[in-house]
Write a structure and sequence with these properties.
single chain; 208 residues; alpha/beta; five-stranded parallel beta sheet; 9 helices; 5 strands; 12% strand; elongated
Length: 208
């Protein structure tokens, strides 16, 4: 069975048998995974470099010796990683209220042990789709920033006033340049920013 989307799943659980079972389940669904026996080990992985530029998901045990899954989750929230790295908590019955609270604070979902293989993989694939959306949005913002960097200082001045809704005549007056020069700069801004109107330009920049 082909997965809905290619991605990488991180497994963080202190129980080796759980990690092995999850890794086997994911392999059987053609999903790649990396497993870690503690929150500290996963944090070390994060410290070694940026996360891969691919859809991701984190399966995270709530209770672990040392740093708990909840503490690790809070640190991921602080670092703004949840959009690119949706978290699915793995929890025992006693921890369900805690997991529900984490979902309210931004976790993608939780699965109570023992969990249904099919249900868990379904949620993982949905989390990967969410991660892919975040990845594509981040790439779009990066591309937009690159295009803005290509603008000259005068083109940025014109762009700012275009977004404010000023007509060419008022832009020319404010910048002490001719209307024809404004028209040239405006056309270059639209071309570099890959838009056809001031409204489209404003909507694009709103996403930054």
């Amino acid at each position: 069975m082909q997965p809905l989307i290619d991605g990488l799943i991180f497994i963080v659980d202190d129980d080796a048998s759980v990690r092995e079972a999850l890794a086997w389940l994911l392999r059987s669904r053609r999903l790649a995974s990396e497993d870690y026996g503690s929150a500290e080990a996963f944090e070390q992985r994060l410290a070694e470099g940026p996360l891969p530029e691919q859809p991701l998901c984190l399966l995270l045990d709530v209770r672990m010796p040392g740093t708990s899954g909840l503490v690790l989750f809070d640190r991921l929230v602080e670092r703004g990683l949840l959009a690119a790295l949706p978290v699915i908590f793995l929890t025992g019955h006693a921890d369900v209220p805690t997991a529900v609270d984490a979902v309210k604070r931004g976790a993608f979902d939780f699965c109570e042990k023992p969990f249904s293989d099919n249900a868990l993989v379904d949620r993982i694939e949905q989390a990967l789709l969410l991660s892919q959306d975040a990845l594509e949005a981040r790439r779009a913002r990066r591309g937009l920033s690159d295009r803005i960097a290509e603008l000259t200082e005068r083109e940025r001045d014109v762009m700012r006033l275009v977004i404010e809704g000023l007509p060419n005549k008022l832009i020319a007056d404010q910048l002490a340049i001719s209307v024809r020069t404004v028209e040239v700069h405006r056309a270059r801004v639209f071309d570099k920013m890959e838009v056809k109107s001031a409204v489209e330009l404003a909507n694009k920049l709103r996403g930054l």
